TrEMBL record, chain A:
Residues 47-153 form the Thiamine pyrophosphate enzyme TPP-binding domain. Coiled coil: none annotated. The chain crosses the membrane at residues 46-63. Keywords: Decarboxylase, Lyase, Membrane, Transmembrane, Transmembrane helix. This is Thiamine pyrophosphate-dependent enzyme.
Automatic annotation (TrEMBL), chain B:
The lineage of its organism: Bacteria, Pseudomonadati, Pseudomonadota, Alphaproteobacteria, Hyphomicrobiales. It comes from Bradyrhizobium zhengyangense. Keywords: Decarboxylase, Lyase. It comes from the Bacteria. This is Phosphonopyruvate decarboxylase. Coiled coil: none annotated. The keyword Methyltransferase does not apply. CDD domains: TPP_PYR_POX_like. The keyword Nucleotide-binding does not apply. InterPro entries: THDP-binding (IPR029061), TPP_dependent_decarboxylase (IPR051818).
Amino acid sequence: MTVESQLDRRAAVAALLKDRGDLLVVSGLGSPTYDLHATGDRDDNFYLWGAMGGAALIGLGLAQAQRGKRVLALTGDGEQLMGLGGIATIGVAQPRNLDIVVIDNQHFGETGMQASHTGRGVDLTAFATACGFAATATVRTLEEVQRLAGQIAEPAAGPRLFVIKVRAENPPRSLPSRDAVFIKNRFRAHLGFAAA
Amino acid sequence: MHSPKPNSKPNPDIDWPSELYRILKAADVKQMSYVPDAGHSQLIRLFSADADVNTNVLTTEEEGIAIAAGAWLGGQRSVLLMQSSGVGNCINMLSLSAIGRFPLLMLVTMRGEWAEFNPWQVPMSRATQPSLEAIGLKVMRAETADDLVETVESAAALAYESDQQIAVLIGQRLIGMKKW
């Protein structure tokens, strides 16, 4: 089936977010949360440690509440596969400030590296296109990721979904706080909302 | 828990969907998401026609739990509409609301408990309240239109002002009074 990518996920995420500016980022549970934290802990990161399938939809609610800011849901293939219906919901909602980036190692990396659907022919970009996304792409090299970083900084006509194919491996974990109330209140304070 | 007063009579003159819309607007709700139910149809129409509220139709109810959390991260209040069968789809995603203490208001129309014609609705009907409570939600329930309006007003304040996760169950006895 698909040829496995040799791209290092930490290098890819670091390149993607190098000049992120005021981008708001929600990360899916498991490796994407560690990847995001490894780029530096920030108030405008919201890390998930559960709620599998929810990352892109948290991004949707956030994007709808913060129309003037760009929102990125950074997730993995397994997490997004559990939320396939959410791609349809986002396709209907058509937010212009939401991008989904799937760090796709084609495996369930947290649970023993079992092969996932994306390594067996399931194409998340084709699904997103069928759901009315404004743009999609699959990238496999650091140079392509650097170009993608420029693209996600630009305005969009609607939601976009990008797949970054990476090597199937688990780099050393980079662990953010698991205290969701703390992370939530810190994120809201960053946007100017007082903690309740 | 709310329960009808022993002598309370259903008041068919109350247009409860319009009253709920008024209450939720007064509570500054800016996002509404739903999987349709006939009992929610008027409320869905009212919100869908409101340009100041972002309305999302969902493929499955748990999506609405995640959207509600994102809306709150971005400073907006939201409400989620579903029928009781959809509660079963929500359980793991409700971990997010519970562990993050995200304000959550779900309005759940009950099936499978009163003059129900479809036996397939009965098992999840029976499991609705226990499963919501097991994952940590506060469950409130209304059987009359008067009680429902008061209950949702109270639930909205608890959710948005006190960071609580609340499901209001709307008894099928009440829904049944409406002509579908």
